[in-house]
Design brief:
mainly beta, five-stranded antiparallel beta sheet, 5 strands
């Protein structure tokens, strides 16, 4: 939940599924954020023991905006 100063609070919620095969992982997600309903599809590729790269597309339902995300992830040893 976002508590926005001078505006109505915004609730979050959603459901996601993930499937992993070898070094690839696939994600599908349906969620609500900032009063907009959206879905997301994504893929992640493991590049090594601690490194992965991902690409996802989020699309708003109706006339809501869409976006692409490209990420590089590093998992730090504990």
């Amino acid at each position: 939940r976002d508590f926005v100063s001078g505006a109505p609070d915004a609730a979050h919620g959603g459901v996601a599924g993930e499937w992993t095969a070898s070094q690839w992982s696939f994600v599908v997600e349906r969620f609500r954020e900032l009063h907009l309903d959206r879905w997301r599809l994504g893929v992640r590729r493991s590049l090594g023991a601690n490194v992965s790269a991902d690409l996802s597309r989020a699309q708003g339902l109706g006339n809501a905006p869409s976006s692409w995300t490209l990420g590089l992830n590093w998992v730090f040893d504990r």
